[in-house]
């Protein structure tokens, strides 16, 4: 069938769904920029079915009146509203119908266990919101207090799995109930069976998670908490149900900020009890790496990993989401002496703490057959982004692994396990928030290159097999990080996005060695220029991935650990890998790194840098798209001359951007001379200097020079909430 996706953003779910449907259907994508854009897309695509995997806007009536339109709702049949996952993670168990009353009870009563199940519904769009015929629904067990569970991880995990199953079944059911036209295309659809609403796909049971109601939008300020009476569990739920958007709006630190993280610390005796005396609730009692821990009224602690300043009407865009410690330090709400005094070290041997606590890097050593020692390197970085400091911790952890390898007890393999994300490359939020984004970009890319160098040089020198185990999505430098390993294992449900060009970068991480080495020069170039996501099966076909294992979560972890001994046996028996045909000497690596960083320096510092700085700004600060890339909106690619900006030769040409800058300079100077009354004391030279400011001057100034939010710690939470711009 011809299928049109309408999406607010082409996110992880829509990418996975596209990869699942495209082998057997003709799928094209349109970003829901406006009603007119959506209507035009439908007219051009002439779809048999419109699917909305992630859509925050209402579908125009003219579309669902003329095309069967399926909405993917992240809740079971009967759940209505735009904040389905927020409410369920906050603790809504279905026992109270009135939302206002429910909020009061959740605020003033001890926490309830929450729902045991949740689900996803695929329903047909009609006039009434979330009330159309149901074509499929799936449900899954849920523990809202599961360690590390946030709204975003719930969405990427069980919600996405249930959504894909439901959409595939719904499409199949529509095909089965359709009459076929003379041209062989489905043209008339029968009504959905009532059983589709009442019985889930897999277990054929009604929804097991309680009663369902209409729930309104859960606002950021409604997630606020009171440290004097809310327990660690309650505070954690309020933060996690808004992570990663919009966050929990709180004046905990004296200034209205969005807070993220929410992990409950369960260290016996309380957080940092060996150093910190008993403190009043809300006090910062521990700092580890980039996160901080506050004490709670029940003697536990809650970790705040990231913060974001509130967008005021005077701000041009959203603020970046940045690590809590550096963010509070910049705001003057924390000082360097407090950081030193409150620092709470992780275990010195890099082992994982037996108790729930903030730990973003850890190492697990396992022995196979009493002889083979394997190191599993885990990391859990927020949204998969790897900042300079996090890359430094990975280098330290790799040094530790090498230090444990001795002639009597050698390390035979290191397995990169990553976390809920494997890696998405450099940390664009930290870069965007820095005093000099170009300089921080340079530092970050060099540090992640240092990590990859261990995989290509340091571990091979000691005959240590390197295995990349992709249990979560990977993008850009994260794919190159995995590709540098001897062997790459991928879970069947992940998405890989190898290209860098979408954010305006050439890319580094030694991809000029690993991609051609694994895929061949022609295919490597095609992968980098296509800028489209890949399934692990597609990646295996071209050589980026060596093995695909079915499953996710604990099941996938166990399969990886079972697979590692077989890989070790094949190495010992002389089976070669891609590196055997490549020159990986220190000289060859140095040449590749120099070549890549030469191009990256153009992306950071030359006239070409405008493409990266502007795209990073738009990505980090959630600037609305103006159009859908033609590589996704294939219904708009009318001929071979219809190209995306990234597909044109000018996209890489520094001289093109230089000429563009010169042209814009002249245009702005003429505008200054023609449209402004020039004071007699103001010379043309001064006007020229003003006009000659960088086109995107905010990228070359300190953040505080561009944005001027109130910094006073005395600003009230009520005033902050009043001035908040809806997200």
From TrEMBL:
GO molecular function, one term: catalytic activity
Identification of the protein by name: ClpP/crotonase
Organism: Pseudovirgaria hyperparasitica
The organism's place on the tree of life at top rank: Eukaryota
Xref: Gene3D superfamilies: 2-enoyl-CoA Hydratase, Chain A, domain 1 (3.90.226.10), 3.40.50.12230
Chain ranges of the Formyl transferase C-terminal domain: 229-313
Keyword annotations of the record: Virulence
CDD domains: crotonase-like (cd06558), FMT_core_HypX_N (cd08650)
